[in-house]
Amino acid sequence: MDKATLEELLVVTVRDGKCPEDVMRAAEEGWTVQTGAVARADLLRSYRRRLKRTREGTALREQTQRLVSFLEESSDDELTMIGATGDTGGYEMFLADAQERRILFWMNMFSR
Q1: Contact (Cβ atoms closer than 8 angstroms) between residue 6 and residue 99
Q2: I need a labelling partner for 22 at 20 to 30 A (CA). Which of 14, 48, 83, 86 fits?
Q3: 97: β partners
Q4: How do residues 58-89 score in pLDDT, each as one tens digit?
Q5: Three-class DSSP category at 60
Q6: pTM
Q7: ∠ CA(83), CA(86), CA(87), 5° rounding?
Q8: 90-99 pLDDT, tens per residue?
């Protein structure tokens, strides 16, 4: 996926309330984008384990719980993980459908 495609997807993602507008503005500064297929079951297993080790009442626990809930409700067996590194050092991670047509989830626990 190129950064222009990611920017197009982000417009819809922001409009749908799945991530804040700041993320889209950061993309305009330029990103290097990497994508890869990932099995929903593998993510679910990993993040359920992480959830058990994450302290109650923390932002990380809340974010991880939202991710686990999303994965439990998803019917897609395969997803695309999108990692975007900004030219100025920022980083964002998203989950998209396998065909990379829409972003389904913003993994804000990885934002920096």
Answers
A1: no
A2: 48
A3: 79
A4: 999 999 999 999 999 999 999 999 988 877 77
A5: helix
A6: 0.89
A7: 140
A8: 788 999 999 9
